[in-house]
Structure formats: structure tokens, C-alpha cells
Amino acid sequence: MNEKISDRKLIFVYGTLLRGFSNHELITSDKTHRFVGDATIKGFKMADLGCYPAIYHTGNDDDLIEGEIFDISAEKFERIRMMEQGAGYKVSVYDRIFNLIGEGSLILFEMDKEQVERYNAKLIDYTDYRKYLSDKKQGGN
Fold it and tell me: At 82, is the secondary structure helix, strand, or coil?
């Protein structure tokens, strides 16, 4: 596969697209992906929608979300985008991490806070979805 750099997308994942979770196979379904690394973004909080989380923008730098960055093909991104937008997420570009990765803007999927509230989602004070699920399973949340 001979892709141009512009055909690649950097995405930040924080829920079921994380390594070890149910939708991660959408990223790894072929050998065109590259794990870039773990990352933390500022200005977002997380909500539990039941089967998966959502993040929403707060603008407060003290609100952090932990996740992973992947470099994927534009074609793979389109498949993931269709799934995420079908579930009510919007595509956002996050430029504040640019210096950390040095490769361009980062794409993430988020919801508006009003949309999260319409879902009657539980707002959670966790930065890491994996930790939240672990604590929830042990009865800590």
C-alpha cells in the first residue's frame, strides 16, 4: 500500500476503540495502522452512556482524558467515522497536542454536553475509561 501522508489520520481513542476493547478491531483489521502512543488531552470530561463512554468539551485545562493515539488510513478513518457519527458523536480536531506528536492535528470523537445530558448519561470523574470500568466491576463506582 503506497499512501501519501495526507491519506493518513491521527486519531485519539478513549473508549471501546482502545486496545483490548470491543471496537479496537476496527483499527487493527489490517496492517495499515500504527500505534503512536498513550496521550492525555486537556479540556474534556467523560460520561458513561452505558455500553460506551463519551467525552465532552469543558475548556478547563484541569479536566483530563487519557487515551491512545493511532495513525490510520483515511479509508479506515471513514469506517470508524461512520460508526461514531451513527452513535451521535461529532468529529473534532484537537490541535493542542501537536507539539507532543509532531505530526499534525489529532482527530477525536466527542459529544456536546447538552447531548450527553439528553442521554441521561452518568457524568464520571475519571480520566481513564479502563480504570473507571475496573473500579465499576469491583463495586467501587
Answer: helix
